[in-house]
Amino acid sequence: MPTPYDGKIYLVQVKGSFLPRKSLGDASRLIVDSMPNVDGVFLQTSQGKEWQSKFDNDSKAVNGPDMVKQWVAAMESRSLETHVWGIPHGLDVQAEADKFIQAAKAPGVKSLLLDVEHGQHYYRGSADAARQLMTLIRNALGPNFHIGFILDARRNRPFNVYIDPWLPFMDSMHPMIYPRDFGKSVAEALDTGFSFLSGFGKPVIPMLQSYNGIPPADITLQGNEAVKRGAVGLSFFCLGDRHMNAPEFAAVAAINFSAGKQQHQGKVAAPAEPLPEGAMGRWPDEPRGYTEYVYESAPDRPWHDFRDIFGRGARWKLTSASNDVSVSYVPQLPAPGRYSVDVFIPRDNADSKRADYHVNYYEGGQPKERQVKIDQSSKSDEWVSLGVFDLDPRRADDGRVNITDFSDERPPQAVAFAGVRWVPVSAVPASVAISEARRLALQGPQGSGQPPTTPTTPAAPSSTPTTNQDVINAFIVAAAKFNDNWQNMIGSAGLTSIYVNRKAAYSGPAIAALPGLGNDRKTAIAEALRLSPADLTKAAIEASKPDTLALPATPAPGKGKVDGRIWGVHGSAGSAVPPRDKWDFWLSELKAMGIKWYKQCDSTGPNDTGDGSIFRWALALRDAGITPVIRYQMGHQFPNRLDHDRFEKMKQYVREGILWAEIGNEPNLDIEWSSPKDFVNWQNPECIRVLAEAWLADSEEALSIGARPAYYAMAPVDWGDGRPHPQLSGTKFNEKFWQYIAADGGRRNRALSIFKRGGWVAVHVAVYEFPLDFEPFPQGRGWDQCLRAYEIPMFYIKQNLGLTAGVDYAIMSTESGVFTPESHSMGGHERLPNDDVHAALMVKMFDWLEANSPLQAMMPWCLAIHDDIGLNNPDFPGDGWYLQRDGKLTARTVVGRLKQTRHERPQTR
Fold it and tell me: What is the pLDDT of residues 475-528, one digit of tens each?
């Protein structure tokens, strides 16, 4: 993506007082005379809702748009550029947006940058406030105006506030990299920043250090080394007598960007646009439409990641004579038509002479597959066509491309897996060379020499095409009608790629065919798109105003009033029951805490129902007004179904009105299987198949008894940069499970019937050290070690079945919640400092879930781990709300806090 900063160097201007006794003309002359390679300034114009003049008493201080114009004129007089920047606070969204908009709209301003940092003088708003602010700014400036993102790239702030809400609106990344301040060498500081930003796919223009006594040699070194790492432009913080003088000026002037300019142009200015108008594409860095299958794990032929010339994620590995892997690219074609199916061959990591490609298509109503071998070593950053095909999105797998690592080359060669695109024949760029495969396709069926039939490309629009920005605006307008989050709606519809180029013509599916959205939402989006672009922009701006984004007066299903209705707890850490003489104590404690739900494991047989049994304990809970949720526990259950005894026991519970049933537990962990460990893998289609078939059959049998069966809770294993886990990812198990269900009409209808008749979804979600509203799909990859991870199964159920949690099915967390400071579940995470924090966070979590989530119940882990609860489980020595110390039962702070909160608040059932 080209930027206004390509191959250029800028100085950051903060305050006029930093340049005392100098006019604007003096400032521009200083730059030209001292640093002829500098191209302009980044001018700070505001902080929060205030112009910069409030913090600067110099005559050059920016006090409004007129002063911005004066800066522009002074810079332009010496062929220098002016870009404006400021610091959002997130406390007065409308007023702050107005300042940014006015500054950016000053004639001659080239771009706007926002500095999003943590601290008293920086961003203190919420994630929603960030989205509101950026929506106002983007709609006012339009899709073509460049907005840059100044950020701290040291991974030291919560993504859900300081990264994720801003990214969809930003065109470039400007990491602050200050080696002296960070206590690192130049190389270390640069490597940290560039490594962090490599996954975002946006141009990087680092803001480097020239203040605070950094050695001049390091200033030059920063610039040259940043260019080597792929920086498309540079800026230095900051201009001013206190920060930069003759030695620093000379150091900046010594930076050689000529090689960098060539490098940037070589990396970004590819032979052709990645997606011509009307085309759609898939890349390995997309969360949907790209799938990897591993048939054999070969340590000597691992996967490697890199970025192609477009900045998109790509992968490579060595070829294999036994075919270790295959990769599938599935398109979302906008309409039936004739398409050229093209693959991108990058310059690097593509040495195989016989790369193995396959295209699925239909001929005479029958599915076909065409194999094409390509000499990747002879290509360099080129699109190569695999052929021209008549494709129809209504046909299963039509247009799907499979690439394998199979080749008999000796020694093995690097084979690249990069982008694939589907281009309507009328849109195929002339610059793309016609491959032999494409030439055969153009000759007609099977290379018969017959001319191809008349192309059936989609009809061209009769007026100005709908742009990606128009579609974004339509989502904003529609979301406001339902009090939805418009970015979540776009994510549910699988349209996050429209952020990449907002001015491009929209080439996604028809609105009516969008996945993951209800018909009411799709109708609202379509209605908004009937407005003219100008009217649609106005409507989006109006819908984005903070007062229109308030919570609905009537809570959505499963959300709203904070009243204690979801409070629960997981009982013993296994199939056990408290000693009979302790029942009255435990029931009294549970009621005093306001507990409404209780998770109980039961592995006992159907005849074990006597006094003191788990069965009788569940009845006692029921009689005390506490709803039991029974996990029918069966060791190493999978790939088998629940056995006969479990269903016989289920009948006993149903007769007593105890209906909530967990029929399996955490199937993404190999400990829950009797199969070999390597069988349990989300990349193993057979593993997914047997799991899904077991769930369908067990759920149907449970429903026939009268129970309400749950969809399996996955163990949270995905977090940080290593996600998704290559074998046990709960996110991927969810994704593959529901894709398998939806791939067959019969299976899909069975699943719909299960939920319609009372099926529900179990999850195991916890806070860990992250904010309560931490985004579960940062950068499009599932992060299930966070509280909102319940949204992961919700997303895939919505996408594949069209059902909504809290409306079409119940959802409950039957474990996790807030772990104790000593809990082994916090291994590798930042532990809570003490029991007081644990108690306060527990109440805050319950309140947040009741106000913001569709969860019907939250049953945190766990009530106790000792003989007084019936099971002294050595695997969990640090867990439990109650501890056994010196033979005495001791309650943690959380017990008293819940009792106090229940006493102070009115509660409902």
Answer: 888 888 877 777 778 877 778 777 667 777 887 777 766 777 777 788 788 888
* Cα separation, 140 vs 134, whole angstroms: 10
What is the dihedral sign for C-alpha 892, 897, 903, 907?
negative
Backbone φ/ψ region at 662: left (φ over 0), alpha (ψ -120 to 50), beta: beta
Q: Are strands 172-177 and 304-307 parallel, antiparallel or unpaired?
A: unpaired
**CATH code for position 55:** 3.20.20.80
In a domain, 582, yes or no: yes
> What are the two backbone dihedrals, phi and then psi, of residue 753, each rounded to the nearest 5 degrees?
-65, -40
pLDDT, tens digit (0-9, with 9 covering 90-100), for 670-721: 999 999 999 999 999 999 999 999 999 999 999 988 899 999 999 999 998 8
CA 221-224-225 angle, to 5 degrees, is 80
Rounded CA separation 825/666 (Å)? 15
In this structure, is the dihedral angle defined by the CA atoms of residues 579, 582, 588 and 590, taken in order, positive or negative? negative
Give the residue from 2, 610, 538 showing the smallest Cα distance to 264. 2
Nearest to 237 by CA among 188, 174, 194: 174
Residue 156 inside a domain? The answer is: yes
| CB 131, CB 164: distance < 8 Å | no
Do 315 and 255 have their domain in common?
Answer: no
The residue range of the domain holding 605 is 568-904
Q: For residues 847 and 830, is the Cβ–Cβ distance under 8 A?
A: no
Looking at the structure, do residues 255 and 313 belong to the same domain, yes or no? no
Q: Cα(299)–Cα(867) distance, rounded to whole angstroms?
A: 46
SS3 call for 338 = strand
Cα distance between residue 483 and residue 597, in whole Å: 30
Give the span between the Cα atoms of 311 and 871, in whole angstroms.
Answer: 55
For residue 590, give the 3-state DSSP assignment.
helix
For the record, the structure tokens of 52 come out as 């910069």
Token pair listed for 55: 């913090």
The tokens describing 740, both together, are 């398998």
- Are 315 and 185 contained in the same domain? no
Would strands 81-87 and 50-51 be described as parallel, antiparallel, or unpaired? unpaired
Of 237, 268, 299, the residue that ends a domain is 268
* Rg of the Cα atoms in the chain: 30
Q: Is residue 225 located within the same domain as residue 354?
A: no
Asked whether residue 870 is domain-assigned, the answer is yes
